Each structure stands twice: as structure tokens, then as C-alpha cells.
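Q: what sequence does this backbone want?
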């Protein structure tokens, strides 16, 4: 076996790795290698692979054999290229030791700068550079970073001691007024010397040993720290929140230091090749003069904009602009860059694909197609579900002009757009605990740090007193599309008293504030929020997506209002209209259904149902109108009847009075409805088997509505859906009754309307016997909420108690996702796939869709595409998500690489053909028919005579699929 390579070198325009090796070298290492290769100015260095991190943890925190040798060989190489040696007393090599995982985890892990400085080499650096202040400044930073990050000393101790010196000695020397601030750069050599002494004694006091004077010991200490940070709580939490599973570990990058703290022609910065908030093609970023490394990211000082940088140092700025151009052309995507200028010369320290706001994601993708950098497929594939969700985040309702004026408090830096409103919380823990109780919160901090991610995630919005647009808070919030305002310097926060002041206004923990992330404005109190305007690029990109996708997107809507909304969001029909929701709409309706339920004779029941009929008819008319010619799938009554009746004595008394029966009768009837397992009880089509008159009323309402709407010249396509079916004969009985009723109405109204009768597939038995069921039902709609419950034997209502344990990677990692949110492709998916194949084997024209929550989940939608569904149906606000996911699925299926993933997605299903749809379509329908005749079902049924119906069908089915 070839020896595993643990270390990859880069320098002198050559690199052993490249940009494709993120998995092994981490994002940072791969980026540094790639930038080196394409000739950008990158300081030399080497990367220890993520595999070493993996092995380190697998072997009880021991490094693999051979690593030390490889590191020292690479170190020699670095010394050769740079002409400096680590620890050399007259001209020492200094390095940074930087973490870098395959996926970006902003600020999650640690980096140590200026490594290699010792009491002796610091003097060498001073002499060599002719700048002793600079050398001492680098040394004090190093001791602090090494002490806190590598050795775990509380950083606060170092900060305090720095502040003490600044406030006492420096302030006195400069004779500053109380209102004037002492800056880091005001501290002189003597004071830095005193500080270093102080820092070393802090180190010794806490570690029990002197600060290490051997650079190699320092190097391994720092490397240990980087690997250690991989399993630090904040990093683990971040991976959990971001659902980053299966990442091997972090790499360690050892990079020659370049210095941004060498005076006014030096500095350090962070920038994006386009505006990450709007997506506009403008250069965007922050720059700090005479500063090093993390000063920008940590948001300790408020930096200047790139436009000011250009004025201050046009030559350095020009170098940066060239790099911007090179990198965008090279990567064909917006990049997030970290750089340092050392005495006028630019060095690139990092590049990665930039996180962007949802609006920017659309704009950049569309613009880049226009610029011919990428094609439409790539543009579509780059949009994430969260980008779409983010676009629909609320904005402040600007019509509240008086309130806006009266409640305006302060303005900060507009870091991430959108608006948020909630109760002020000063700690991440508080934010999390309030959010758990479904309270909306705003996290208010001086600055955020990686420890705060949990609370940041839980909050509606984030407000910080310090930091620029690239501070930790801004970067993390942007990734989530979460409203964020930073650098709000007028904010004075008192964590102990749990209050912040702006001038003489005090805002306490628990008080409401409203943030406008698009302007940076903060308001006191609760302002009304509205849905934002979608950017033009959204429409453009979604039209490309619609052209790319192969399946239809419908919506789950129960009211004309929802139906209209969904149409606006791009729905092409209703995949699930739940009729029972209408019953709760008014007192009159609920009384009518209750009377129907407590009725003990069929006449009484029919009388009550007759009262419901006009209501249902009216609702369906509204829905048919809203869908204007698209198909509307209406599900007949589904929940168990006990859900409609009052369970308290008071309510029962009232019902008795209204219905003109005795209280005892009502009470007794309600008690009879009690079921031990209502989910598995008397519900769905079982109700219609017992009480066919309910079905008759509902079908009458549907068809009457259809006739009324059709008379107005609007096309209607009713699809009557029978829920919870377990057997073909069961369905056949109900289908016969449905058709008899429907045809009766059509005859009475002298109308000709094509309608379909189909079923939900939501019990495992229905899926298993799908071929038989499809001889009766003209369409299948997978009700994956129930199908998941019944396949797994997990009640969705009770799952909260234990399902989190199954999903938690730390605890068990049994499931990667909550199966009620993202379809269990291995199990439930297998049933679905089989049911589709079986169903189409007896009815090639069978129309298939999904109407569970999963229809709005991106991964599940992609699965539905792969198994050959005709449509997915999602709740109105998820419709755009489904449109995009369906387009991405089509693109993946077209691409050669995607074939593999299709195969692996279906691997568990042990089927050979991803092209379910095509295979079926190729078969002549007749060929399949004999199989039907063989089925025992056919024998059981007089329904067999009905077959001509199925034969007629193709015409209808074609109409549906050709309709845009
Ligand atoms: P992060 O992953 O948190 O961005 P980095 O490893 O990129 O951490 O380091 C943070 C900052 O430290 C960089 O943006 C850069 O300014 C500074 N830095 C890192 N390595 C060097 C180096 N070799 N020379 C100068 N500055 C460096
Ligand atoms: Mg960085
Ligand atoms: Mg159901």
C-alpha cells in the first residue's frame, strides 16, 4: 500500500494540492493551493490534511506515524523558499497556524499568528525590520493567542491587562481627556515591553511553566490546538445546527506570516467580489489600516470601506482589483477574500465561495448568466432552499409612518437585510430558552462569538454594538438570511443589569424591539412586518427553473384565499383540498356537522348534511375559480368524527339544546366516538363505508360547484380523492357511489364535465396492493404524513418525545432527518416506488403525485422526481421551493454525474431503472391488461364491467399533462 501523504506544500507558484481537494485539504488549504497555482501573491506554506485530524481522534488523540517527519521536511522546504529559519535569532521565519475544514465554519475554529517569536527572535525581527514596536506588537499578540487558544487561558485576563496598561500608563503619557479613547496603536515600545512581561507572567501563573521558547514546541502546541478546536463545543454545535454530517475533520495550514501591522502603508482586510447583500456587481469590503489578522473579523475595531482604502492607497487597491477579476473569472462565482497589505504589497490569505443574502444569490446567479460566466443550469443549481425562504422574510410595513418616526431609536450598520421583531435578549442561552417557548427574540450583544450560534439561530434577528459587515455576527446571520444590524456604537449594553441604553432611552431584557436590516434602523416596540418585494432576478431565475423541470407543482389549499396565494407563487393546481377544514369556518357549519354526527337515524343525518351542502358548494366554487382551469384534487372527509364534537359538559349542553335532543343523548354519542387509537380508527373512507350519505353530500357539493363555475365559462377539472384506502374493493364501492352521485348531478345540470376519481396511498397495504387499487383509482396521491406514520409505526403527535434522539447525531444518528420533514427514502420511499410501478402496471396512464408535507421539502421533491411522479403538492409558501427543487432534480438527472446519485438513492429499493416513467410509457397499454384479469380483485368485482372507463381515460390524462 502506498504511504499516505499527510502534508501538501504550496509556494513559489507551485502547489502539491489544488482547489478541487477541499475534502482533504480543507477549504482554506485548497484555496491557498489554487491561488498559488494561478499565480496570485500568496505567502508560502503547507497543509496538514483533514485525514490526520480524523486519525488523530480515532487513535485517542495520537498523530499517525510519519507525520512528524513529513512536517519537518515541509518546514525545511518553507525555510528554503523564504530564506528564513524558524527561531533564527537575527531573521526569524514566522508562521501562522490556521484551521480550515472542508466546509466553511466562520470563526468556529482557531488560528494562531506570529508563531516562532521568542525572547531572542523578537529582537532579531526588530533589528531586521528596523521597527521594534512592530516586533513587540507581534510578540504580545502571539503570547495572547497562544496562551488563550493553545493553552486555554481565559482571554479576558490578557485583555484586562492590556486595558490596564493603556488606561494607566499610555493615557497619562499622552495626557488624554476622559472622553478620548486610547487605541491599540497608541501603546509605545516601553509599554509593549511591560505588557509582554505581564503576559508571560499570566502564562506562567496558569500553566506552571515559562512561555515556550522553542518554536518547534510552539508549532506542535498550536497544531494540537487546531485539531482540538474541531471537537470544541462551539464547533460541534455549529455542525449540528448546519447539519454538517460526515465531515472528516479540519486541516491545519502553516503559512509564512506577512504583516499588516507595519505602519500606515500596511493593513488587513476582508472583501467580497460582489455585494453579498444585494448581489450587485460592485467590490465590497472592509479594511483596517495598521492591523493584523483577526482585528477585522472579530469586529474589535470598526474598519473603513474599500472606497476609502482606494483613496488612501490606490496602488495596493489596484492589486486587489486585479485579484478580484482573476478570481471571479477563475472560479465563476462570487468570492470572499482575506488579504493583507505589507508596506504596499498585497498578499492573499484566503479565498472561498462567498456567503450571500438570498436576494444576492438570485441576482448573482442571473447576472453571471448574462455575463456568460455560467449557464442557466448552473445558475439554477446554485440557489438553495434557504435562499427562497429568505426572500419571503418580512420587511417593516412602511405605511406605519408615524410609528416609524416615533419609535426610531438608533441606526447601526445594515449587515443583513430583512426585518425582525422580538423581545430583547442579552445572552444566547436566554434567546434559546425563550425561543423554545415560541417567543420571538432579538439577540443583542456587544459582539457575537462562535459560542453564541445557538442563540443566534434561535433569534429572529441580531443586533451588535461593534463590528463591521464582515464581523462574525454579520457573516453567520447572512448565511441564514437572518436580519442583522452590527456596529451600532451608540448602544451601551450592561449585561449585568440586563439593559441597554441609547442616550437616555433604556431598553430592558424582554422589551420588544424591531430591526430593519436593510437600513440598519432599530425601533423600540413591535412594528408591523410585511412580505418583501421579490427582486427581478427571482422571476427570471424561477422562469428558467420552470422551463427546466419535468413535473408539475401543485399546492395544498383549503380555501379560495390560499388557492389564490398559491397560484401567485406558481402553483399549477391543487393537490390536496381538505374538505373538513371548511366545517370549522362558522358556528352554523360546525353545528350542522355536529347534528349530523349525533343523528341516530339516517333521515336525521341527511337533514343535517343538507344544511352543510350549500356551504361546501360555495367553498368549492371559490376554489375552482381561483384555480382557473387547473386540476383540483378534493379529498373527502378524513378525520375521526370525535374531532368535531364538544368534549366538555358545557359544549355538549349547548349542542343538545341547539339540536333539540337531550344532554344524555349527546353525551352518550360523544362517548361512543371515543377511540383508543383514533389515528388508526374510524376515519378516512371508513366513515363513508359506514355513512355513505356523507360521501354523497360531499360529491354533490363538488359537482354542483363545478357545474356552477363551468357555466360561467371557467374550465374545471375536479379530481375526487378518497382517503385512507386499504383495499381495491373498498375503493371500488366508494368509487361506484361517487360516480353515481356525480353523474346524477351532471345529468340534472345537463353539464359535461370530466372528472376523475382516485385515491390517496397512505397505508402500507394500499402501497402493497397498488396494482389492484389502480384498476379502480385513476390517480394516486401519496399521503406521506400518514404513510410515514404507518410504515414506521410512529405517531407524529407523540414523536416529539423520542424522535429527536433518533435524529441527533451525537446520541444515535439513526436517522439523518426527521422523517416527517424529509421523506424517509429508504423505507417509505421504497413503498412509494413500488406502488408507482405496480399502479402503472395495471393502469399505464395512472397519474401520481404526493401531498404530504414532504411535497415542500427539497430533498423529498427530488426523490419524487426520480421515481417518476407527475406532480408534487406543497403548502402555498413552499411552492417556490418545490419548483426549484424539481428543476434541480431534472438538471441532476441530465448530468452524467447525477446518474450515480440516482442509482444510489434508489439502491435500497434494488430496482434497475431510474426511468420509471419512460419504461411505462413505452409499453403498449393493452399488453398489461391480461394481468388485471388474472387478479382476484377482478373476480371479486362486478366493477370489472366498468373497465371501459379506464380505456377512455388516456384522452383526459393527456389533456392534463399538456396543459401548461
Ligand atoms: P478564519 O478561519 O477564522 O478566517 P484565518 O486562518 O483565515 O482564520 O485567519 C484569520 C486572519 O488571520 C486572516 O484573515 C489573516 O488576516 C490573518 N492571518 C492568517 N494567516 C496569516 C499570515 N500568514 N500572515 C498574515 N496574516 C495572517
Ligand atoms: Mg479567514
Ligand atoms: Mg392522511
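A:
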Amino acid at each position: 500500500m502506498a504511504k499516505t501523504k499527510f502534508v501538501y506544500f504550496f509556494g513559489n507558484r507551485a502547489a502539491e494540492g489544488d482547489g478541487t481537494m477541499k475534502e482533504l485539504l480543507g477549504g482554506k488549504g485548497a484555496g491557498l493551493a489554487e491561488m498559488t497555482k494561478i499565480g496570485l501573491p500568496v505567502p508560502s506554506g503547507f497543509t496538514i490534511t483533514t485525514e490526520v485530524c480524523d486519525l488523530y481522534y480515532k487513535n485517542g488523540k495520537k498523530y499517525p506515524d510519519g507525520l512528524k517527519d513529513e512536517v519537518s521536511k515541509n518546514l525545511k522546504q518553507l525555510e528554503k523558499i523564504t530564506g528564513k529559519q524558524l527561531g533564527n535569532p537575527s531573521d526569524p521565519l514566522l508562521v501562522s497556524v490556521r484551521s480550515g475544514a472542508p466546509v466553511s465554519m466562520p470563526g468556529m475554529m482557531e488560528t494562531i499568528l506570529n508563531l516562532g517569536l521568542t525572547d531572542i527572535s523578537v529582537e532579531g525581527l526588530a533589528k531586521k525590520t528596523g521597527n521594534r514596536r512592530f516586533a513587540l506588537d507581534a510578540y504580545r499578540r502571539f503570547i495572547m493567542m497562544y496562551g488563550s487558544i493553545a493553552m486555554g487561558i481565559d482571554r479576558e485576563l490578557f485583555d484586562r491587562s492590556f486595558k490596564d496598561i493603556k488606561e494607566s500608563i499610555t493615557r497619562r503619557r499622552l495626557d488624554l481627556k476622559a472622553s478620548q479613547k486610547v487605541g491599540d496603536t497608541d501603546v509605545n515600545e516601553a509599554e509593549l515591553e511591560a505588557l509582554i512581561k505581564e503576559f508571560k507572567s499570566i502564562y506562567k501563573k496558569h500553566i506552571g511553566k515559562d512561555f515556550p521558547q522553542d518554536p518547534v514546541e510552539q508549532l506542535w502546541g498550536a497544531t494540537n490546538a487546531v485539531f482540538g478546536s474541531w471537537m470544541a463545543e462551539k464547533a460541534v454545535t455549529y455542525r449540528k445546527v448546519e447539519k454538517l454530517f460526515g465531515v472528516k475533520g479540519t486541516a491545519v495550514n502553516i503559512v509564512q506570516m506577512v504583516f499588516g501591522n507595519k505602519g500606515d502603508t500596511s493593513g488587513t482586510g476582508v472583501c467580497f467580489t460582489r455585494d453579498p447583500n444585494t448581489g450587485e456587481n460592485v467590490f465590497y469590503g472592509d479594511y483596517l489600516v495598521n492591523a493584523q489578522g483577526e482585528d477585522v473579523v472579530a469586529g474589535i475595531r470598526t474598519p473603513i470601506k474599500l472606497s476609502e482604502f482606494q483613496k488612501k492607497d490606490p496602488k495596493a487597491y489596484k492589486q486587489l482589483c486585479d485579484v478580484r477579476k482573476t478570481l471571479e473569472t477563475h472560479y465563476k462565482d462570487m468570492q470572499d477574500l482575506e488579504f493583507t497589505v505589507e508596506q504596499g504589497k498585497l498578499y492573499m490569505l484566503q479565498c472561498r465561495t462567498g456567503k450571500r443574502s438570498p436576494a444576492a444569490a438570485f441576482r448573482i446567479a442571473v447576472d453571471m448568466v448574462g455575463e456568460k460566466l455560467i449557464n442557466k443550469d448552473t445558475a439554477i443549481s446554485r440557489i438553495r432552499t434557504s435562499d427562497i425562504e429568505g426572500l419571503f422574510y418580512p420587511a417593516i410595513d412602511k405605511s406605519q409612518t408615524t410609528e416609524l418616526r416615533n419609535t426610531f431609536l438608533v441606526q447601526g450598520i445594515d449587515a443583513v437585510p430583512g426585518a425582525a421583531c422580538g423581545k430583547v435578549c442579552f445572552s444566547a442561552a436566554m434567546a434559546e430558552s425563550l425561543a423554545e417557548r415560541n417567543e420571538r427574540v432579538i439577540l443583542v450583544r456587544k459582539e457575537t462569538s462562535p459560542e453564541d450560534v445557538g442563540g443566534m439561530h434561535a433569534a429572529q434577528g441580531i443586533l451588535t454594538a461593534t463590528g463591521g459587515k464582515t464581523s462574525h455576527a454579520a457573516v453567520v446571520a447572512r448565511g441564514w438570511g437572518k436580519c442583522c444590524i452590527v456596529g451600532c456604537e451608540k448602544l451601551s449594553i450592561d449585561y449585568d443589569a440586563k439593559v441597554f441604553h441609547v442616550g437616555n432611552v433604556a431598553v430592558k431584557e424582554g422589551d420588544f424591539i424591531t430591526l430593519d436590516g436593510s437600513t440598519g434602523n432599530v425601533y423600540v416596540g413591535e412594528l408591523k412586518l410585511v412580505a418583501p418585494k421579490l427582486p427581478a432576478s427571482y422571476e427570471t431565475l424561477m422562469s428558467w427553473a420552470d422551463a427546466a423541470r419535468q413535473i408539475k407543482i401543485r399546492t395544498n389549499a383549503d380555501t379560495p384565499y390560499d388557492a389564490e396565494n398559491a397560484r401567485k407563487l406558481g402553483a399549477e393546481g391543487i393537490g390536496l383540498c381538505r374538505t373538513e377544514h371548511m366545517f370549522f369556518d362558522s358556528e352554523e357549519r360546525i353545528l350542522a356537522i355536529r347534528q349530523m354526527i349525533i343523528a341516530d337515524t339516517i333521515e336525521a343525518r341527511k337533514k343535517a348534511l343538507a344544511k352543510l351542502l350549500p356551504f361546501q358548494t360555495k367553498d368549492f366554487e371559490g376554489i375552482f375559480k381561483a384555480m382557473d382551469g387547473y386540476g383540483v384534487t378534493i379529498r373527502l372527509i378524513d378525520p375521526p368524527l370525535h374531532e368535531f364534537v364538544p368534549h366538555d359538559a358545557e359544549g355538549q349542553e349547548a349542542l343538545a339544546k341547539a339540536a333539540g335532543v337531550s344532554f344524555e343523548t349527546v353525551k352518550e354519542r360523544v362517548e361512543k366516538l371515543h377511540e383508543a387509537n383514533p389515528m388508526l380508527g374510524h376515519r378516512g373512507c371508513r366513515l363513508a363505508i359506514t355513512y355513505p350519505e356523507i360521501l354523497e353530500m360531499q360529491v354533490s357539493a363538488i359537482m354542483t360547484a363545478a357545474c356552477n363555475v363551468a357555466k360561467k365559462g371557467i374550465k374545471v377539472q375536479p379530481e375526487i380523492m378518497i382517503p385512507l384506502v386499504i383495499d381495491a374493493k373498498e375503493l371500488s364501492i366508494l368509487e361506484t357511489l361517487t360516480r353515481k352521485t356525480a353523474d346524477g348531478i351532471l345529468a340534472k345540470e345537463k353539464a359535461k364535465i370530466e372528472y376523475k376519481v382516485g385515491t390517496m396511498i397512505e397505508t402500507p397495504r394500499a402501497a402493497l396492493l397498488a396494482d389492484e387499487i389502480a384498476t379502480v383509482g385513476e390517480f394516486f396521491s401519496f399521503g406521506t404524513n400518514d404513510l410515514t406514520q404507518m410504515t414506521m409505526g410512529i405517531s407524529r403527535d407523540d414523536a416529539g418525545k423520542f424522535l429527536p434522539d433518533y435524529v441527533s447525531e451525537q446520541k444515535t444518528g439513526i436517522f439523518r432527518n426527521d422523517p416527517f420533514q424529509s421523506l424517509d427514502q429508504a423505507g417509505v420511499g421504497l413503498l412509494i416506488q413500488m406502488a408507482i410501478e405496480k399502479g402503472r402496471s395495471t393502469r399505464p396512464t395512472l397519474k401520481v403525485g404526493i401531498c404530504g408535507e414532504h411535497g415542500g421539502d427539497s430533498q423529498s421533491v427530488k426523490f419524487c422526481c426520480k421515481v417518476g411522479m407527475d406532480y408534487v403538492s406543497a403548502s402555498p409558501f413552499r411552492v417556490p421551493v418545490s419548483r426549484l427543487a424539481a428543476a434541480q432534480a431534472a438538471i441532476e438527472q441530465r448530468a452524467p454525474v447525477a446518474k450515480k446519485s440516482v442509482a444510489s438513492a434508489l439502491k435500497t429499493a434494488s430496482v434497475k431503472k431510474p426511468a420509471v416513467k419512460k419504461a411505462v410509457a413505452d409499453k403498449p397499454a393493452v399488453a398489461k391488461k391480461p394481468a388485471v384479469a388474472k387478479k382476484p380483485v377482478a373476480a371479486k368485482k362486478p366493477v370489472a364491467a366498468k373497465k371501459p372507463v379506464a380505456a377512455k381515460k388516456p384522452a383526459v390524462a393527456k389533456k392534463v399533462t399538456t396543459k401548461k
